[in-house]
Amino acid sequence: MNERVGFAGLGIMGSAMAQNLLNAGADLTVWNRTPSKRATLVAAGASDASDLPALAREAAILFICVSDTPDVEAILFGDNGLIEGLQEDALVVDCSTVSPSATKRFAERLANQSVHMLDAPISGGSEGAANGTLSIMVGGEAEQVERALPYLQVMGKKITHVGGHGAGQMTKLVNQILVAGSMLSLGEALLFAQAGGLDLERTLEAVSDGAAGSWTLTNRGPQVIKRDWSPGFMIDLQEKDLRLVLQEADELGAPTLGSSITFQLYRSLQRRGLGTQGNHALVRALEYVSSIQVGE
Amino acid sequence: MNERVGFAGLGIMGSAMAQNLLNAGADLTVWNRTPSKRATLVAAGASDASDLPALAREAAILFICVSDTPDVEAILFGDNGLIEGLQEDALVVDCSTVSPSATKRFAERLANQSVHMLDAPISGGSEGAANGTLSIMVGGEAEQVERALPYLQVMGKKITHVGGHGAGQMTKLVNQILVAGSMLSLGEALLFAQAGGLDLERTLEAVSDGAAGSWTLTNRGPQVIKRDWSPGFMIDLQEKDLRLVLQEADELGAPTLGSSITFQLYRSLQRRGLGTQGNHALVRALEYVSSIQVGE
Questions:
Q1: How close does chain A come to B8, measured CA to CA in Å?
Q2: Interface predicted TM-score of the whole assembly (ipTM), two decimals
Q3: Which A-chain residues 162-201 have CB contacts (< 8 A) with chain B?
Q4: Which residue of A has its CA nearest to B163?
Q5: What crossing angle do the helices spanning A257-271 and A167-195 adopt, rounded to 10°?
Q6: pLDDT value at position B66?
Q7: Is B61:B6 a contact under the CB 8 Å cutoff?
Q8: Is some CB atom of chain B closer than 8 A to the CB atom of A207?
Q9: pLDDT digit string (tens) for B149-183?
Q10: What is the mean pLDDT of residues B122-127?
Q11: Which of A213, A215, A267, B1 lies in disulfide reach of B213, CB 3.0 to 4.6 Å?
Q12: What angle, rounded to 10 degrees, do the helices at A235-252 and B167-195 form?
C-alpha cells in the first residue's frame, strides 16, 4: 500500500471501507458531498480534500462509492470533478453499482487522459463493509487489478477479476437478478404457508437445509416472519439495480420474466414510501395484492 | 422397528427407501404395479405381496411412494386397493407429493375405518433416497409420527413434524415454490451473463458465496453451464408439483406471480418432449423466448 489513496463517497458502505483502508495503514484523503460525514475519518487520521480536483491531485488511486450512474459521472467528469485534477497514470476504482455500458464509456474517456479505471462493485451489505468481508467483482485490465489488489483485500474477502471494463458491473447485476428472484420466491412461499395455516418457523426449519436452501431463506426468512423490515439492503437501491438489469437486458435481448416482476413490485413499495425498508419487504407488495399477511 | 412394514411404489425413490428399511432390519413386504421392479428387493430379503389387499393384510405400517394424487387414491381406495385388506389401527405413511386437500380427505376416510395416516413427502433427490439423507416433512397426529419415526429415520436425516394432516404436503409445496423460483433466477441470471459476454464459470464463482448464494446455484449452476440436463429432479414431476401449488394457492387466495411463470415454462418444455430432463433445464425455455443460448 505505497500509493496515496483517495476516497469519494462516504455513505454507509464507503465510510466503513475507507475506515478499513485507514486501519490498514493507507495514506488516505477523503471527500464527501456532505462535509460532515468526513469528520469521523478525519479524526481517525485521514486528510480532508477541499474539493474533487484537490482529491485527484492528492491521490494516485481513487475509490468512488456512490449510488447511481449519474453520481459517478458527476464525480468523474462534472464541473469541479475529479477530471480537473487527475494525475497521469492514476487509477479510479468505482465501487458503486452502475450501468455496465456507461462504465465502459467512462473507462474509455479516462484512458484518453492516460488514467486507468476498474469497476469493482461490492456485495455483502453494511456488515461486510464494516468487517472487510465484502465480495468484490472486478472488471478492467489485469495489471490494474494487481495494482488495486492490496487495497481491495483490506475491504473484501472474495475478490474476483471477472473480465474487462464493465464486467464487474455485469456480474453485480447477475448477483442482483439472483437476489431479487430469491426475495420473490421467499415472499410467495411464506404467504402460501401463511394462507395454508402452517407454522412459519417450523416451515422454515423444514425447508432450509435441502434443495430450497439459500442465503435469503436463512438470513431474511426469520426477519420476514417477525415483520422486521430493517434493511440489510434498501429497496431504493434494489429497485435502482433492477432498473439497470432491465435496461442492460433490453440492450442485450436477454429475457427478464422474473426480474421485471420484482422490479414492478419494488417500484410499488417505493411509491408507498417504503423505499428505505429492506429488500425482503418485497413480500409486502404480495400482501397488498392478496390481502393475506405473513406473521399474522 | 417391531412392526411389519409394507412398501407400495418402487420407483427410483421408493426402491432406495425400501432398501434402506431392509438394510436396517425391517420385516418388509413390497408391492409395485410393474412386478419386475420388486426383484432386487425380494432377492435382498423382502417378501413379495401378490396384490395390495395382501400387502395390507401383511403389514401394520404401509409406506406409499408414487407420483400423483390419483395414484395414491387408486392404491388406497381403488378396486383391489389397500382398503380391502387394511388391519385395524394400521398406519399409512404417504411419501408421495400430492394435493394437501386430497390428503386431508384420504386421512378422514381412513380414520373412519380405524386406520391412521401421515403425509410424509420427501425432498433430497435420488442421492438423498439412496443415502438415507432425505428431508421428510410430516403431517398428522403426534402419536403416529412417534410410531413412524424409527422407520423415517432410516430413510431421512431431517424429519420435521410440521402440523396436522396435509401440513406435510403444504410444506413440500412451499419447498417447491422456492426450488422452482431459484431455477427461474438461475436461468435468467446465466442468460444475462451469457448475453453480456461474461465468463460463466468465473461469474458463478464470484456470486455463489454471498447474498445470491443458494443450493441451486451451487449444485445446478455448473450443470447448466455444461448443458448437462440429466435430472436430479425431473421436469415432469416439477411441473406436477407446481400445478399442485397453483391449485392450492387458488383455493387459498395466495399470490403466485413467480410460480405461475415457472409452471408455464416447465409446461412448455414438457410439450417439447423434455419432461424427463432435470428441472434446471428451465433455462431452455428462456432460451427459446430469447434465442440466446447459455454455454455457447
A1: 25
A2: 0.95
A3: 162-163, 167, 170-171, 173-182, 184-186, 188-199
A4: A198
A5: 70
A6: 96
A7: yes
A8: yes
A9: 999 999 999 999 999 999 999 999 999 999 999 99
A10: 88
A11: A215
A12: 50
Is the Cβ–Cβ distance between B285 and B238 less than 8 Å?
Answer: no
One domain for residues A159 and A179: no
Q: Cα(A212)–Cα(B214) distance, rounded to whole angstroms?
A: 8
Q: Where is the domain boundary, A142, A164, A186?
A: A164
Domain shared by B94 and B20, yes or no: yes
Q: CB-based contact (8 Å) between B223 and chain A? A: no
Residue B123 with chain A: CB contacts under 8 Å:
207, 210-212
Residue burial B51-81, b: 16+ Cβ < 10 Å; e: rest: ebbbbbbbbbbbbbbbbbbebbbbbbeeeeb
What was the pLDDT predicted at B242?
A: 98
Q: How far apart are the first and last CA of chain B?
A: 53
Report the gap between the CA of A39 and the closest CA in chain B (Å). Answer: 31
The chain A residue lying nearest B254, using CA atoms, is A192
For residue B137, what are the domain limits?
Answer: 5-164
- The confidence score (pLDDT) of residue B126 equals 85
The yes-or-no verdict on residue B200 having pLDDT over 90 is yes
Chain-centre distance for alpha carbon A202: 33
Note whether A254 contacts B191, CB cutoff 8 Å.
Answer: yes
Specify whether B60 is located in the same domain as B152. yes
Note whether B258 contacts A181, CB cutoff 8 Å: yes
Active-site option among B104, B172, B226, B240: B172
What is the Cα–Cα distance from B26 to B150, expressed in whole angstroms?
A: 10
Catalytic residue among A37, A104, A157, A172: A172
Q: What is the full per-residue pLDDT of chain A (296 aa) written as tens digits?
A: 899 999 999 998 999 999 999 999 999 999 999 989 999 999 999 999 999 999 999 999 999 999 999 999 999 999 999 999 999 999 999 999 999 999 999 999 999 999 999 999 999 888 899 999 999 999 999 999 999 999 999 999 999 999 999 999 999 999 999 999 999 999 999 999 999 999 999 999 999 988 999 999 999 999 999 999 999 899 999 999 999 999 999 999 999 999 999 999 999 999 999 999 999 999 999 999 999 999 96
CB neighbour burial string for B148-162, b if at least 16 within 10 angstroms, e if fewer: beebbebbbebbbbb
Residue of A nearest to B252 (CA): A195
pLDDT of residue B1: 83
Binding-face residues of B in 43-82 toward A, CB within 8 A: none
B250: domain CATH number is 1.10.1040.10
Would you state the pLDDT for residue A1?
83
Residue among B181, B205, B292 minimizing CB distance to A181: B181
Domain match, A27 and A103 both: yes
Pair (B119, B202) in one structural domain: no
Kindly state the DSSP code that residue A28 receives in the 8-state scheme. E
A99 touches chain B (CB under 8 A): no
- Counting the structural domains of chain B, the total is 2
The answer to whether A158 faces chain B, any CB pair under 8 Å, is: yes
Q: Reply yes or no on whether the pLDDT at B20 is more than 90.
A: yes
Based on the residue annotation, tell me whether B158 is a catalytic residue of this protein: no
A243, with CB counted inside 10 A (0-12, 13-18, 19+), is middle
- Assign 3-state DSSP to chain A and report helix, strand, coil percentages, each to 5: 55, 15, 30
